[in-house]
Amino acid sequence: MTDHNPNATHSEDNKLIAERRAKLAELRESGHPFPNDFRRDATAAELQQKYGDKTKEELASMGIQVAIAGRMMLDRKAFKVVQDMTGRIQIHASKEVQKDTKHWDLGDIVGVRGTLSKSGKGDLYVTMDEYVLLTKSLRPLPEKHKGLTDTEARYRHRYVDLMMNEDSRRVFYARSKIISVMRQYFTERDFMEVETPMLQVIPGGASAKPFVTHHNALGIDMYLRIAPELFLKRLVVGGFERVFEINRNFRNEGLSTRHNPEFTMVEFYQAYADYNDLMDLTEDMVRTIAEKVLGTTTVTNTRTRGDGSEDTIEYDFGKAFERLTVVDAILRHNPDITREQLADDTRARQVAKELGIQLKAGWGLGKVQIEIFEATAEHRLMQPTFITDYPKEVSPLARCKDNDPFVTERFEFFVGGREIANGFSELNDAEDQAERFLAQVAEKDAGDDEAMFYDEDYVMALEYGLPPTAGEGIGIDRLAMLLTDSASIRDVILFPAMRPEQKAGHGHGE
């Protein structure tokens, strides 16, 4: 069989599908082909955990009766292998049973009741005393090795990937546990979980291009949210002093190994705290997640170089995370640049020009510094690092530092050269916020489609009074990439965004 393609037109695939449809037709004639009255009482993992250490003789003397169900993945005549959500277990068919189940194919979902036994090789199996075909699979499974080499097919047809690829299942179990541990971490610290609108009249809380839709009944354009930030801070104004939301956000940007147009974040806000408190919290939470999900604070990632060779990198979450300012990070990774150059607009622009960085005329010194940082330092931040003191110009929602109003009390958290989180002491001066929104509107009018809108209601909320507050967003997809050693964001999103598949005769394909 060739590489798997659920829309295959190869004659061999068509022949196999036709054979299976014929078997289903026979089943329809003999009765209901999709029964729903079988109930299992054990899973593969449960049986292995309870009885895996028993000897063949001990199991025989116990006479344990079990009912299992799952997808048939291997058929070795007498011994077949069934896979459920926890793993695999064998079933044993006598010659008579083999004849009776000749219409079974790989991929079929079956139910079996029988005695739990152990083979001479030490493998658990269930005798097929009672058995039923629960769902007929009309499409053949891909070959174990050839069928999983098409990365695009794995993302597009995730259900097949999950059937065949244990590593994929492991990644998504880990992702689920990351979110579970995170939710528990917040609730144990008196944070209240809330929900805020995904469909908004004004998209706010981040600098990003939104998706636009139209509400027919109201007769207005609306936007898919780019961040829940401004709604969460409204709740803090209202008196919910610790809130968090595990949320989907949507940004109309390109696709890459780090970007998907819809992605998952956790955003949280804590009154009477500043960005230092949130850095402490983030360090402790990430360490806790690593320990509970992986059982260790040392995370190993494998990276492929341009020449095809691989590097192994170890990230140590057990040590204190380093904290560096934006300027200090630039200086560390650019020994030829001086602090004085970065502090002067003309000289900083010259540095950027020499580095080949394209600058726009309207950008100020803060934006120039960030461009230099992103081009020369960001990708070198391998071990867990907080980068602090972002310029006010690129931080329209963050509080300025009292001793240096050019920068804000803001940080971003990096591991492996990737940004994982962004947090800051919140701007709670309503008049200052209004001025910054106006500056963003001017940038939008000048052609920046990622600049923020003016949110009059949010300014009104601040006028009622936001207590001193710190807030943060953590990218769950990127954190999952890190903890599961996944090279692409598509590897940790069950159904990533894909270009529509071109059918035969309808275009040139992808």
UniProtKB/TrEMBL annotation:
Pfam family, one: tRNA-synt_2
Top-level division of the source organism's lineage: Bacteria
Cofactor: Mg(2+)
UniProt EC number: 6.1.1.6
Localization per record: Cytoplasm
Name of this chain's protein: Lysine--tRNA ligase
Record: residues binding Mg(2+) 1: E412, E419
Segments crossing the lipid bilayer: none
Family: Belongs to the class-II aminoacyl-tRNA synthetase family.
Reaction(s) catalysed by this chain's protein: tRNA(Lys) + L-lysine + ATP = L-lysyl-tRNA(Lys) + AMP + diphosphate
Residues reported in the UniProt entry to bind Mg(2+) 2: E419
One annotated GO molecular function: ligase activity
Main location: cytoplasm
CC cofactor note: Binds 3 Mg(2+) ions per subunit.
Every Aminoacyl-transfer RNA synthetases class-II family profile domain range: 175-500
Gene3D superfamilies: Bira Bifunctional Protein, Domain 2, Nucleic acid-binding proteins
Subunit record text: Homodimer.
Major enzyme class: ligase
Keywords attached to this entry: Aminoacyl-tRNA synthetase, ATP-binding, Cytoplasm, Ligase, Magnesium, Metal-binding, Nucleotide-binding, Protein biosynthesis
Family matches, as InterPro entries: Aa-tRNA-synt_II (IPR004364), aa-tRNA-synth_II (IPR006195), aa-tRNA-synth_II/BPL/LPL (IPR045864), Lys-tRNA-ligase_II (IPR002313), Lys-tRNA-ligase_II_N (IPR044136), Lys-tRNA-synth_II_C (IPR018149), NA-bd_OB-fold (IPR012340), NA-bd_OB_tRNA (IPR004365)
Protein biosynthesis among keywords: yes
